[in-house]
Amino acid sequence: MGLFEGLLDRARNSAPVDDHTAERVLDAALQQAEDFGVRRFTVDDVARRVGLSRVTIYRHFPKKDALLSALLMRELRRFLSKAETVVTAQPTSAAKLTEGLLFCVTFLRQHRLLNRLLKTEPELILPYLTTQAAGPVAEAREWIAGLVRAEIAAGRIAIPEPDIDSFAEILVRIVLSLVLTPETVLPIEDNAERQRVIELYFVPLTQRFTPAADHPAAPAAADADAP
Question: What is this structure's pTM?
Answer without folding.
Answer: 0.84
